[in-house]
Amino acid sequence: MVSIEDLIAPVSDRLTPTERRIAEAVTNDPSLLAFGTVTDLAGRVGTSPPSIVRFASKLGFDGFKDLQHQVRNGLSERLIRPSLRIRRPQGSIAPIRHAIADAVEAVFDTLDEARLTSLAIPIAEARSVWILSGETSRAGAHALHSGLSMIRPQVTLVEEHTTGRDLSGAGEEDTVVVFDFERYRRNSITAARTLADLGVTIVAITDGPLSPLASLAQTWCGLTIPAVGPFDSSAPAVIAAELIVAQVARRLGDDARERIDKLEALWEATGTFLTYRPRSNDQR
Asked: Are 159 and 210 members of one domain?
């Protein structure tokens, strides 16, 4: 069943300001769309019923009832998940712990087998894989680069100051994986838009269907990114990267295993890893 987020993502860059308000409302609380009337939803958003109908049409439905039926059928699992966030006095670490735990659980809910497969296929089949990211999503990009580089060739982590040079050879046989969350980095979004126009496959790891990356991507996933003190958490992006690497390795099969075996042989031949044995008491 296609989610409301997946319905919005392909058209997000064509939504009017009013339609974006509707989209924000129904992604934050899909029950407004699933169980309310056109008038109810219009009143909640502060718009008119015809605007709600036009929004449904822009998502590809004949009318509000068709869109409502689609969302209602896919909503049951989301409605039974209560928030686990516990409010504590200021200064307690508990709210941060619960926010991270909720976000990690949401990664596993979002990246089910079907979604992981859709993300992994273009990465496994690409001639070259390029990885872009914003500053706060850099940890996920590094994790993906590290893992993919060990199971397939031609994987490049693109630095912001070398974006043009690195991506000048990207073509239609390639895949670009972009990590970015609000506040979106100009470089990653502009590069992704340019590459999409050139026919390069875009895989986006972002934060929802209204992200500027969602409408550019052939496949994408939306992660919940909680605040940890003054900064956004890197945990969801890193977990997503590790799950994607595992799925790509499964698809590559023997090719991935052979590459890892070659790496192990090179590491051993070059003494890459320290052989460490603790000294016994009589050697001290």
From this structure: yes
Residues 120 and 237 in one domain: yes
CATH number assigned to the domain comprising residue 61: 1.10.10.10
Q: Is the domain of 73 the same as that of 172? A: no
**Residue 247: domain span:** 96-268
d(CA 274, CA 203) in angstroms, rounded, equals 37
Domain assignment present for residue 88? The answer is: no
Spell out the per-residue pLDDT of the chain, length 284, in tens.
577 888 899 999 999 999 999 999 988 888 788 878 899 899 989 999 999 999 999 999 988 988 888 887 765 444 433 333 333 344 557 777 888 898 999 999 999 999 999 999 999 999 999 999 988 789 999 999 999 999 999 999 998 888 999 899 899 999 999 999 988 999 999 999 999 999 999 999 999 898 999 999 999 999 999 887 777 899 999 999 999 999 999 999 999 999 999 999 999 999 998 887 787 766 55
Q: Is 277 within a domain? A: no
